[in-house]
Specification:
323 residues; mainly alpha; two-stranded antiparallel sheet; 15 helices
Length: 323
């Protein structure tokens, strides 16, 4: 059995060996730049762990794991254009460094590279893997569109928000896990359970991201309050709006636009309302519910208990983060 830290090393080494051409430089250099940007690599590691529930020859799953990670980074290139994001993982985004046109075209090439990597999986599994990957890719696009739609809407419900983050964040985790399970030879029932596990884990992970943006630890490198300053409709903001009175809602709606306040004052004002309405506690409750639902899906898998336990431990480590 391989452990998550070792699998991460295998994934990193495999990604580092992908040989992108040197020319044209403005097409391929941004790809290498984005892929070397770090990140948690949780999608390929989850794929490898799911594969390892049923099989031992880890090398057979590496092309698919790399494909999922290349696809994920492709989405980030295009997301940064749509969000006008200048920073990605603590350094200039491809969009900021090379401009919109380069980010679009390099992203397109990354999507093609993801399919090239997928083409290396065992022929017997390729149709099923492509079906999962294609459905996942479309759902990610749907989630991004909903996210942009919500920016233009005054009111978004918690149900709508949860569906959006399921599509934008959780389904790619689910796709990765199911692809790994397919390659390992899992049954349809186990694939179904693992997909639900990853959906719930992805929801918990994104809700934790929302919470950490306002209540994380700056000493660990996460800038606090960015979502508040943008007036972003996160789980915290949407839940606060649903619990607030009209006067409080007006504060939540307008604080980020108030030019008389410093950034620190804006963050403090909104967080004071969050605390009054017990939003951090409500968010932590929802994170715990989603995580417990995720773990429950792992019960009864047709896999060795110690291998299931490794997947559980990795999922738990994701929820124990502070940034």
């Amino acid at each position: 059995m391989l452990y998550s830290d070792k699998l991460l090393d295998y994934v990193e080494n495999y990604l580092a060996q992908i040989d992108f051409p040197e020319e044209p430089e403005l097409l391929y250099t941004p790809i290498s730049y984005s892929m070397q940007g770090g990140g948690k690599r949780l999608r390929p590691v989850l794929l490898m762990l799911a594969y390892g529930l049923y099989a031992d020859e880890y090398r057979a799953a590496l092309p698919a794991a790399a494909a999922v990670e290349v696809f994920h980074n492709f989405t980030l290139l295009h997301d940064d254009i749509m969000d006008n994001a200048l920073i990605r993982r603590g350094k200039p985004s491809v969009y900021a460094k090379w401009g919109k046109n380069v980010a679009i075209l390099s992203g397109d090439a990354m999507l093609i590279e993801a399919y090239r990597l997928l083409g290396q999986v065992a022929p017997a599994h390729l149709p099923a893997v492509l079906e999962v990957f294609n459905r996942t890719a479309v759902e990610v696009c749907e989630g991004q569109q909903y996210d942009m739609d919500f920016e233009e809407r005054q009111k978004v419900s918690v149900v709508e928000y949860m569906r959006m983050i399921e599509l934008k964040t959780a389904v790619l985790l689910a796709g990765a896990v199911v692809i790994g399970a397919i390659l390992g030879g899992a049954s349809e029932e186990d694939c179904r359970r693992l997909r639900r596990f990853a959906i719930e884990l992805g929801l918990a992970f994104q809700l934790q991201d929302d919470l950490l943006d306002s209540y994380g630890d700056e000493r660990l490198g996460k800038a606090i309050g960015g979502d508040i300053l943008e007036g972003k409709k996160t789980y915290l903001m949407i839940t606060a709006m649903s619990h607030a009175n009209e006067e409080q809602r007006e504060v939540l709606r307008t604080t980020h636009l108030d030019a008389t306040l410093t950034d620190a004052e804006k963050i403090a004002r909104v967080k004071a309302l969050y605390d009054l309405l017990e939003i951090p506690h409500l968010t932590e409750q929802q994170i715990a519910i989603r995580f417990e639902r995720a773990l429950a899906q792992l019960e009864g898998l047709e896999a060795l208990p110690e291998r299931v336990e490794e997947l559980k431990q990795y999922a738990t480590s994701l929820m124990g983060r502070k940034k």
